[in-house]
């Protein structure tokens, strides 16, 4: 059973160095919007590596699509391009200045992979564990009433505003009256 709809963001681009920075900012902004700030660094690093691979290796063109999808407790970042050749993890020379992109993705992600897409093209993807969604805290609300001598402060469950107001009223009603 799915308790939350999937959230998805797709960007089409040419994998040129100037565009890679723009996509990093788009991914970062989308993750902030989804309250997944803790995943920004790894997701931005991974998408940079995948787009750099498209820029350096993809043929016949550099056109690709980046997709980020949050489904329950998993963020998946994928890059679709038109080159049917599947990537492999290289064991590069320790002094080499390139060739470690997929090894880096493998190190920071929960899982990753590549699969053919139709007759021409492929999808390279990685996943990151997303924190479980927990209710946002609501600051204490002051409640005045006959049963209390001052404001009642406490936390209320996140949810419908009417639900929250009812919860506060119930808490205030069970507090003993203060003699004055």
Could you describe the 3D structure shown?
This protein is an alpha+beta fold and 180 residues long. The chain is built from 4 helices and 5 strands, in the order βααββαββα. It has helices at residues 17-33, 40-57, 101-108, 161-174; strands at 7-14, 63-71, 74-81, 111-116, 122-129. Strands 1-2-3-5-4 form a 5-stranded antiparallel β-sheet, covered by helices on one side. Strand 4 and strand 5 form a beta hairpin. Helix 2 (40-57) packs antiparallel against helix 3. The longest helix has 18 residues, at 40-57. The termini are far apart. The model is unreliable at 134-139, 144-162 and 171-180 (pLDDT under 50).
**Coarse shape:** globular
Helix segment tally: 4
What does the radius of gyration come to? Answer: 24 Å
Spatial sequence of strands, sheet with the most strands: 1-2-3-5-4
Low-pLDDT segments: 134-139, 144-162, 171-180
The succession of helices and strands, N to C, reads: EHHEEHEEH
Strand content: 15-25%
Distance between the termini: 54 Å
Structural class by SSE content:
alpha+beta
Mean pLDDT: 78
Count of DSSP strands:
5
Helix content: 25-40%
Largest sheet: 5 strands, antiparallel
């Amino acid at each position: 059973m799915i308790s939350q709809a999937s959230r998805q963001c797709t960007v089409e681009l040419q994998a040129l160095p100037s565009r890679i920075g723009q996509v990093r900012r788009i991914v970062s902004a989308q993750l902030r919007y989804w309250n997944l700030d803790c995943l920004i660094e790894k997701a931005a690093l991974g998408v940079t590596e995948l787009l750099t691979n498209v820029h350096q290796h993809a043929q016949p063109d550099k056109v690709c699509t980046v997709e980020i999808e949050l489904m329950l407790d998993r963020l998946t970042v994928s890059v679709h391009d038109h080159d049917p050749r599947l990537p492999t993890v290289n064991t590069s020379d320790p002094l080499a200045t390139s060739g470690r992109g997929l090894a880096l993705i493998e190190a920071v992600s929960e899982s990753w992979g590549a699969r053919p897409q139709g007759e021409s093209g492929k999808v390279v993807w990685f996943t990151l564990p997303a924190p479980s969604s927990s209710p946002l805290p609501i600051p204490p609300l002051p409640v005045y009433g006959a049963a209390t001598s001052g404001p009642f402060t406490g936390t209320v469950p996140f949810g419908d505003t009417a639900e929250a107001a009812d919860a506060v009223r119930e808490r205030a009603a069970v507090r003993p009256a203060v003699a004055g």
